[in-house]
Task: inverse folding
């Protein structure tokens, strides 16, 4: 059924490549999804793959012949190039950003500060809807200009602002990228981003307190958590928000695919796709963010968690779409290459398992004076493992990898 197994030959993992069709607004597109698992987990992964019609759309290519061709293309090994890797020059202090606009990272941080003010002062705003939409629009424009920087900022911009507000920005970035990949219309993307930015307005102070908690939450706190979607909608309606698509995102962002969520216990197709996109983004971003009581998960651990632990409650087609958008090694992930070098995933490479990596630490463990760009599809430079910042023992500023657009 549109699936095949290949040994990827680099990670000691079995790769399962799946080809599915995804029809959106009468448009068919092939979607390559790479699911990964250790051999012992394969059976479990196999069980969670979507095999049912999705929102009334058949999940897998109906034509076996077309599937076979598509699979053979998608599972084909990238050609192993033997050309020598050339160093590239690290941007220096004198390079200037394009004069027409501010750097992408700075604009994301400005959106975060504006959002923080709005969320905590919403009852004083004469036109809160316009102000929130203005922030959402500016964030969308920044992400359009620098999707790699926006994704990397989720991992490497964690000291910016309060956790509760930064989490909403991170969630909005991931939700926007997934929505865009699903060909959502601009007004729908705006509603999704606005929904993600305001999803926790009903428990902002509580969210900040709970993220630092080691002990179990009380019954009162649990009740407040369960009430925050409705509380958020009430706050937004009082502030003049009338967009029902946006309000639905806030009201339903904790509903689960299997009906185990809150506040209504809706399931499956009774949850709008826009809301499911936010729910997935919320889960991913929470996992890769560090909390005071635990370290952040590596992106690959977060994806594995969502595929395995959350497979009942997150729509697997959306997880697949996110992997398609972000790759198996999302931008910003710190990796060790087969060469022994350590670097940061700078963006997409020759395929979803072979990202472009900016090497920061050479084979001798010494920090390089200027980063080297590696195509990890080249023999000898494949990704061997993903590392945490502490494991890698390297600190860097985002502009050193992504240039002037990544200056805060
Ligand atoms: Fe929430």
Result:
């Amino acid at each position: 059924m549109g699936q095949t197994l290949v040994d990827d030959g680099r990670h000691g993992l079995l790769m399962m490549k799946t080809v599915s069709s995804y029809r959106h607004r009468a448009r068919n597109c092939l979607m390559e999804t790479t699911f990964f698992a250790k051999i012992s987990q394969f059976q479990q992964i196999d069980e969670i793959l979507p095999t049912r019609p999705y929102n009334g759309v058949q999940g897998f290519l109906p034509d076996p012949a077309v599937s076979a061709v598509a699979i053979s293309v998608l599972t084909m090994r990238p050609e192993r190039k033997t050309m020598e890797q050339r160093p590239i020059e690290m941007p220096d202090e004198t390079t200037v950003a394009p004069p027409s606009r501010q750097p992408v990272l700075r604009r994301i941080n400005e959106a975060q500060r504006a959002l923080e003010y709005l969320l905590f002062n919403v009852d004083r705003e004469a036109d809160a809807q316009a102000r929130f939409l203005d922030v959402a629009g500016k964030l969308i424009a920044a992400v359009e200009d620098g999707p790699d920087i926006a994704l990397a900022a989720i991992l490497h911009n964690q000291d910016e602002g309060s956790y509760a507000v930064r989490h909403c920005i991170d969630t909005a970035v991931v939700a926007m990228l997934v929505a865009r990949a699903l060909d959502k219309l601009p007004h729908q993307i705006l509603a999704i981003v606005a929904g993600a930015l305001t999803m926790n307005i009903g428990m902002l102070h509580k969210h900040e307190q709970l993220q630092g908690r080691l002990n179990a939450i009380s019954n009162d706190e649990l009740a407040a958590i369960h009430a925050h979607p409705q509380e958020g909608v009430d706050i937004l309606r009082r502030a003049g928000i009338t967009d029902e698509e946006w309000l639905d995102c806030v009201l339903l962002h904790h509903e689960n695919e299997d009906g185990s969520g809150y506040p209504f216990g809706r399931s499956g197709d009774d949850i709008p796709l826009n809301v499911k996109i936010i729910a997935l983004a919320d889960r991913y971003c929470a996992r890769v963010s560090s909390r005071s009581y635990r370290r952040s998960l590596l992106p690959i651990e977060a994806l594995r968690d969502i595929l395995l632990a959350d497979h009942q409650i997150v729509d697997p087609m959306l997880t697949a779409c996110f992997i398609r958008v972000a790759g198996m090694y999302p931008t910003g992930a710190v990796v060790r290459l087969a060469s022994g070098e350590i670097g940061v995933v700078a963006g997409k490479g020759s395929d979803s398992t072979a990202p472009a990596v900016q090497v920061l630490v050479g084979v001798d463990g010494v920090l390089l004076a200027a980063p080297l760009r590696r195509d990890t599809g080249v023999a000898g430079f494949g990704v061997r493992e993903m590392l945490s910042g502490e494991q890698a023992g390297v600190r860097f500023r985002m502009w050193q990898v992504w240039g002037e657009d990544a200056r805060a």
Summary: The pocket of fe (ii) ion is lined by residues 199-200, 228, 253-254 (CB under 6 Å).
